[in-house]
Design goal:
This protein has about 260 residues and is of the alpha+beta class. The protein has helices spanning about 1-30, 35-55, 140-145, and strands spanning about 65, 75-80, 85, 90-95, 100, 110-120, 125-130, 145-150, 185-195, 195-200, 205-210, 235-240, 245-255. Strands 1, 3, 4, 6, 9, 10, 11 and 13 form an eight-stranded antiparallel sheet that branches. A five-stranded antiparallel sheet has the order 2-5-12-7-8. Strand 10 (about 195-200) and strand 11 (about 205-210) form a beta hairpin. Helix 1 runs antiparallel to helix 2 (about 35-55). The radius of gyration is 26 Å and the shape is globular. The two termini are about 25 Å apart.
């Protein structure tokens, strides 16, 4: 749809340009001006039109910044048990529980896009956001950041829907369940808009949470501590266990236009 609208807009603009140009040419030629004045008149018209169009053109959003280069783990650091490798252009998780975090700084007021797939029909992992400081071990991000969960079948671990793919782990109830099983690809788009966190899974909204919204009491000791998280923070990818192998193809960020 956007492409079709753009093409229609270009056609309208082109038609308007030639109609105005013809009108200006007709007016100039019948004004009694000499050839030099007619050319100056037309050149002035074209210049004004170009300036007007440039001012009226919509501002393009910033390009996506790729945080994973597809070759190695430059810009990333691992903490906790297990680890990660790059194989065939993909980040592959090993063992756990640990965290691979991006060392490039805190992120806020942005959209984070993560494309991943599970090796098996279902696996456990997550994307951590709003981590207040650089992690030195694996549990600080759990209790002081948010985990956008990856697990399509939490019931097999005696957990409920608050622990399913696309939720803020144990804190939010899913608005939908669009997660695809392995080995299909899934895409997160995680929007950090001030105190608001929105998670789309494969284009479908699963989470829309704002700091201060009510959350359920903890059900398990390993669930995160309740409480506010910062407006910006570090991000990371979880490696959960030897039985939960997940591949990440893309991690990218785009700043929100404010």
């Amino acid at each position: 749809m956007p492409t079709r609208l753009k093409a229609t807009g270009n056609q309208i603009a082109e038609t308007a340009f030639w109609e105005l140009n013809s009108h200006v040419s007709f007016t100039a030629q019948h004004s009694g001006f000499g050839v030099e004045k007619i050319l100056m008149f037309k050149h002035g018209f074209w210049l004004c039109l170009l300036i007007t169009l440039s001012l009226a053109a919509p501002a393009h959003s910033e390009e996506w910044q790729q945080l994973f280069n597809g070759k190695d783990l430059t810009g990333w650091k691992h903490v906790g048990p297990g680890g990660d490798t790059v194989e065939n252009g993909l980040i592959k998780t090993h063992g756990g529980m640990g965290l691979l975090y991006w060392t490039g700084g805190k992120l806020g007021d942005c959209v984070i896009r993560v494309t991943y797939k599970m090796r098996d029909h279902n696996s456990n992992s997550g994307v951590f956001i709003r981590i207040p400081e650089e992690p030195t071990e694996e549990w600080m991000p759990v209790h002081r950041g948010y985990e956008v969960q990856i697990d399509n079948e939490p019931e097999k671990s005696d957990e409920d829907d608050y622990h399913i793919t696309g939720t803020l782990y144990s804190l939010t109830k899913p608005l939908a369940k669009p997660g695809k099983p392995g080995p299909e690809w899934n895409t997160f788009e995680i929007t950090l808009d001030g105190p608001r966190t929105i998670v789309l899974v494969n284009g479908v909204k699963v989470t829309d949470y704002k700091e201060g919204d009510p959350v359920p009491e903890k059900k398990f000791d390993f669930e995160p501590k309740r409480g506010p998280r910062p407006l910006e923070g570090y991000i990371g990818l979880q490696n959960h266990s030897d039985n939960d192998i997940v591949f990440f193809k893309e991690v990218a960020v785009k700043k929100l236009k404010k």
